[in-house]
UniProtKB/TrEMBL annotation:
GO cellular component, one term: membrane
PANTHER family, per database record: NICOTINIC ACID TRANSPORTER TNA1, PUTATIVE (AFU_ORTHOLOGUE AFUA_3G03820)-RELATED, PERMEASE-RELATED
UniProt membrane topology term: Multi-pass membrane protein
Regions that span the bilayer: 81-102, 109-137, 157-174, 186-204, 216-238, 287-307, 327-344, 351-372, 378-402, 414-434, 446-467
UniProt-listed InterPro entries: MFS (IPR011701), MFS_trans_sf (IPR036259)
Chief localisation class: membrane
Name of the protein: Major facilitator superfamily domain-containing protein
Location(s) in or outside the cell: Membrane
């Protein structure tokens, strides 16, 4: 190694980050805040709108379950769970190929084109005529190798691609200490979409029989039409990168590029994909601990989400009123996501939001499991808020935690994609844990959720301990013998890279 002395460049609010090999342009604090607000106005609303529609689309099946889809297609509870499972298997398979493609294609073009197909296929999903048709549609929607032989082959392809692509964009535009608030913002709007989904499902009950179509078919058709219309908004307004933003001054562009480099996301607008990025991610124990936390949250929450409308009916509500009663639950969950994201960026910590959210969700699951099922509907309804509020609130902290502590950009993309892909793949277990034959106690579903949440609490403590220990170890290393290029190549292993706890 060279003996050339290296001066460590301070990253924004993070004194120990990777030294960027770029020419930096420093902005005053007031100017930087104005710049961040300018980005917020252009990036966050578009991503939030996309995530709202994605969430409504995903939740449409659970709402359709009490609007008559099972009776119309003559499917059993087990067959319904298989349809849900097919959705998440295909969702997960495409995530890694999507990130590879995104290394070569502009985000606005990729997401815009996918959204067109997403909307078309969502609408066509309302025309399924049997269990086989519904299952094939849900599975084929996520096939990574799009073959265009049938339109159903593309929707889950789109939704599997969206969330990693959104996180990729956030990492390109923001400093590490401002990532969680933005991730939390569009994730919170997606959570709030649960309320909108319930209201929409309630509204379409009055369309039952219109044009000879059942209300659940109208639900898919309406969501698909709105999604299709969003494609134009994405193509026109979604910013790709600082380099392409005409609304930024040259100084602002250079400042954002420097921020991107110090955050470990790379100094170049486009970086080709290499197999080493994948290997760096899969060989990092910290990535796998984050993956396990995501698995626990996904399995515990999604199974409950798909069963929630049915659970509310068991509380004594009609099918229509059960849709309305889901609104306050998702509203509370949205508030928890927002509070967790705000606190995480304000304190520059991810562990508290993750740990507290998991504990709240765990308490809710234990209470629902132990409370008598034939009475106390108000108390059980209250703890439904704890389950989704806690688990949904923990998820943005978990995503940001993994993204913040992986560098450079290639490894960061693969780490986050692994986290989301494996987490979604295991949702199959959660969606099949709440089976109709086990109602109303759902011993398997609640028992699995309690076990996984308990393990996630322990793993989050272990991850925080490892990160703290690594920061202390790096503080003892003399960086003067490293060149700037060597430090950048080391990624998050660099002694100048400080892990976020």
């Amino acid at each position: 190694m060279s003996s050339e002395k290296v001066d460590v460049v301070d990253g924004p609010d993070y004194p120990d980050t990777i030294l960027p090999v770029v020419e930096t342009t420093q902005l005053a604090e007031v100017e930087e805040k104005k710049l961040i607000r300018k980005i917020d106005v252009r990036l966050v609303p578009v991503l939030s709108l996309l995530w709202v529609i994605s969430s409504v689309s995903q939740q449409s099946l659970s709402n359709a379950s009490i609007l008559g889809i099972k009776e119309s297609l003559n499917i059993s509870g087990t067959q319904y769970n298989l349809i849900v499972t097919a959705f998440y298997i295909s969702y997960s398979v495409f995530e890694i190929p999507s990130q590879i493609i995104l290394s070569f294609v502009r985000p606005s073009l990729w997401l815009g084109g996918l959204t067109v197909a997403w909307g078309v296929i969502t609408a066509l999903s309302g025309l399924a005529q049997s269990f086989g048709g519904a299952f094939a549609a849900r599975f084929c929607l996520g096939i990574a190798e799009v073959n265009f032989r049938s339109p159903e082959s593309f929707l889950k392809h789109v939704q599997g691609a969206f969330f990693p692509a959104a996180l990729y964009l956030v990492a390109l535009w923001y400093p590490r200490d401002k990532v969680q608030k933005r991730v939390g913002a569009f994730y919170a709007t997606g959570t709030l979409a649960g309320s909108f989904s319930g209201l929409l499902a309630y509204a379409v009950t009055y369309m039952n029989g219109k044009a000879g179509l059942a209300s659940w078919r109208w639900l898919f058709i309406l969501v698909g039409c709105v999604t299709f219309a969003l494609a134009a908004i994405i193509l026109l307004f979604l910013p790709d990168s600082p380099e392409r933003a005409k609304w930024l001054s040259p100084e602002e562009k250079q400042h954002l590029i420097a921020i991107r480099a110090t955050a470990g996301a790379g100094k170049d607008e486009v970086e080709g994909w290499k197999i080493k990025y994948f290997m760096q991610a899969v060989s990092d124990v910290k990535v796998w601990l984050s993956v396990w936390i995501s698995v626990c949250i996904n399995v515990s929450s999604i199974g409950f989400v798909f069963t929630l409308p049915t659970v509310l009916v068991q509380f004594g509500y009609t099918a229509a009123n059960a849709q309305l009663m889901s609104v306050p639950i998702y509203a509370v969950a949205t508030l928890c996501v927002a509070l967790s994201a705000y606190y995480g960026d304000k304190t520059k910590q991810r562990f508290p939001g993750c740990f507290c959210g998991l504990m709240i969700g765990l308490i809710g699951l234990v209470a629902l499991y132990c409370l008598p099922k034939e009475r106390l509907p108000g108390v059980r309804y209250f703890f439904c808020m704890w389950v989704l509020g806690g688990l949904f609130g923990a998820f943005p902290s978990t995503l940001s935690w993994c993204s913040n502590n992986a560098a450079g950009r290639g490894k960061k993309n693969m780490a986050v994609t692994l986290q989301i892909a494996i987490g979604n793949l295991t949702i199959a277990a959660g969606s099949n844990s709440y089976v109709a034959s086990d109602a109303p106690r759902y011993r398997v579903g609640f028992g699995l959720g309690i076990a996984l949440c308990s393990s996630a609490v322990l793993v989050s403590v272990l991850l925080a301990y490892i990160l703290r220990r690594e920061n202390l170890r790096k503080a003892q290393i003399d960086v003067s013998s490293y060149t700037a290029e060597e430090l950048e190549e080391m990624g998050d292993r660099s002694p100048t890279f400080k892990y976020i706890i």
